[in-house]
Every structure is written in structure tokens, then in C-alpha cells.
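pinned: reference chain
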Amino acid sequence: MSESARPAAAAGTLRVGDLTVNRHGFGAMRVAGPDIWGEPKDRAAMRKLLARAFELGHTFIDTADSYGPDVSEILIAEALHPYPKELVIATKGGLTRPSRHRWDENGRPEHLRGAVDASLKKLRVERIDLYQFHAPDPKVSYAESLGALAELQRAGKIRHLGVSNVDARKLEVARRVTPIVSVQNSYSVENRESDDVLAACERTGIAFIPWYPIGAGRALRSARVKKVASRLGATPAQVALAWLLARSPVMLPIPGTSSMAHLEENAAAATLRLAPQDMAELGTA
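pinned: its C-alpha cells
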């Protein structure tokens, strides 16, 4: 299929453990309702959006049990199961949603065991391709939480493990417990607080998955991003995503949206090539 038909594939590929994915993924957080809570207004439209994401070349889809909660995982299965061979679905556990505006950490081993079993059922799989511990729980030893997930991996329920919302120290703790193939942290052209974690991922060959890759809209308002976008005839979102792809070979952006138009726009960012002048203006470190 041509690059124009599957624009996300233009980003090239990346190894996540022993899996190969196109380096421009899709984040399925926003297929749930407003505030990532409850059902979307139009379930059929979200199923079409997810199917279209794969058609556009997004062979890596990221979700979590807390999106909805549960809504995103179920919609992915409704839209794409039985899954195409090249599609990798990553999910996360370790955050609970007692109400619309709460995201509470829960790294207790018994919770994670139940969460993995529930995600297996919702995604309709026997083994999860990539399971990421969503956030450290200050009430539970990080090594204990990761140890529980490592046990589930040995039991055959998880193929690969990743971590999310970690600093460099937490990443090292995780790597001492079990092999880690991905890190998912907030990162964008306007938020580079995880530069040291990104550097650690580059040294060790770990995929770095930036959440909020457009900086929760900050990149769209950035004067320097707007300037480069104007010069290239692109949108600010496309420039922000192209910057991430150019920033590091281990980068795996996962822009999310509930809009078909924005999905198409974001996918096309993989075809945008930033010149050295563009990167200098946007900054590389």
C-alpha cells in the first residue's frame, strides 16, 4: 500500500521487544467520553475511528483500563478483533477511576493481577502484547508492583512489560526487577522534563512513548511551532509530531483524538521532514 494510503508508515519502524511497529502510533484515550469518563456519544463513530487509525498505518495502539474506565479497551476489541497480524496493542494498569476527575494509583499486586485478567477479557486476547505499569503507587514498593507483573509475564499472560510516569531512578529499579521494553512519559516540544529518561531509553534500546505529544495543546499555541508550520505549509500539530519523530530514533508518539479529521491530520505528520533549520528553531535539547 502506498505512503499516501498509509501515511503513518512513513515514520519507519521501531522494535518494541521482539515486536516491530510503525514508529507513529495511536493513543486510544479519547475514544471514551468527555474527561475520559464513560461512553462516547457515538460508539459506532469511535469504532470507525479506530479502524481508520489502523488503515492509516498506525500499527501500535495504546490504551489503558482506566480510560472510561474500561471503555477504550472494549471499543478496540469491537473495532479491530480479530486483530491484524501486524497490529500491536499496548494497555496499562495501576490507576483506578473512583469518579470522573480522579486517577488514583493502585500498585497492589492483587489489584494488578485482577487488572491484567480483566484487560485480557476486554481485549479478547490470551496474552497482552505490551502491558505498562501506569504510575508508581507511593503506598506500595515499586519493585513489589513490578514483581507481580513479572510473575504474570512468566505465567504467559503478558508478552512484554513497560513502565509509565517514571523518573530515571524508577526506570533503573524496574529494570533490576524485570526486562523493560518501553517507557511512557509526558513529553513534547514544549515539555522536555523527561530528557534524562529519554537518554536512558536511547542507551538501552527501550522505546520511549510520549503521552500528550502535542503538550495538551501547548504546542499548538507555541510561536516557534507556528512559525515553522507556516514556512512548511503544515499545521502546528504536524510540526510538533514531526519534531518528536526527528528528536530520537526510539521515539514512538501516540497522538490521540476523537476526530476523524484530526486523525488524518496527525497521521500525515509522519511524512513531514524537518530540515536542520527547523530543528534549530524548535530546539533539540
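why pinned: The chain has one domain: 7-216+251-257. Residues 51 and 80 are 6 Å apart (CA to CA).
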